[in-house]
Design a protein that fits this description.
alpha/beta; 19 strands; Ubiquitin-like (UB roll); Helix Hairpins; 13-stranded mixed β-sheet; single chain; TIM Barrel
Length: about 425
Amino acid sequence: MILPSIDLQNGCAVQLVGGERLAIDAGDPMPLLDAFAVVGEVPVVDLDAARGEGSNAEVIRRMCRRAKVRVGGGIRDLATARRWLDDGATRIVLGTAAQPELLRQLPPERVVVALDEKCGEVVTHGWRRGTGENVLARIHELRDLCGGFLVTFVDREGRLDGTDLARAAQVVAAAGNRRVTIAGGITTAEEVAALDRLGADAQVGMALYTDDLPLPSAFAAPLVSDRSDGLWPTVVVDEVGVALGMCWSSAASLRQAITERRGIYHSRRRGVWIKGESSGATQELLSVAADCDRDTLRFTVRQVGAGFCHNATRTCWGNDRGLRQLMRRVAVVQPDADNASLTARLLASPDLLAAKLREEAAELAQPDAEIVAEAADLLYFTVARLAAGGVTLADVDDELDRRAARVSRRACVAKEPR
């Protein structure tokens, strides 16, 4: 599949030819990140750190909190590697530092080894210095210590001349069951599809920036359909993965959905169909993913309005339940200190809400607590606190995922009560 990449220099998204000549300065990387993240993980490379000429760390940390980001550039020691994993990088990319002694101290599934190839040789120091090492031999040496490889064909990088599919096949074979990403010269959707058939992802920068390879075309390239009309079944889920319903996508509807970042599908009666255009139950498209067979899509959306279903329910199987349903009910309540509704009064009185949170937490902590009932009470007041702060359960889910991904662990020490 496609991995749209962002290279950073002096805080700006740039594209270089051959790693040297500035061809494009795209400015603020955040709009690019928002556009690229719709199709999955985004590799971000700190060119300044890679060259020892500065750092874009603060920008990248913000990017890690905004999307799934694979971080590379200037990661040369264990402390830096662990810090990026703790700061939210889904994976880190190690170049010259990818030595066995370092790799053994890191979770292999979250490490990608970058190998820059020039005439079959591994090159380093901004592609300026040869090592005498063969790329395939290096892959054999390290493949049991990492989760994948990024191989850049330096002679083709940034030149829009096409990639080397024959060499890519050799790299994939050498990597065994480790996932390979190929970079350098990839220009057409056909190349993205060909690499996917080989078992490799395509990391693309220049062709996307120049629109020689539109992002929707790059994403759709590996997709297949066994239907005569070429449609893809599309499972629609919300931010936490709850299925809202099932639709169909066509090449045209998929292109428009990715471009506009909205829930847009194919209606067999109306053609391209923008969800909620008449009902108001619109969708923001957060991400689109293909399944393992490349014949089914998953749209992750932020649903607004009454819900996904034409029957005005949250899902096509009725309304959901539990915390998610509670959160939606509480989120529409208006603060009102004189209202008979407890929720309205809680939202109007931060002091009352804080007191109830302390009270219910203390009751749940008692050894003889009715755990289910007390936990339900505490969760209700927690949901009210989230709503008062403009925070959603999906935001909390994201934070929990970030914490689960940390490799450093802190001691659990009780604080003195204030």
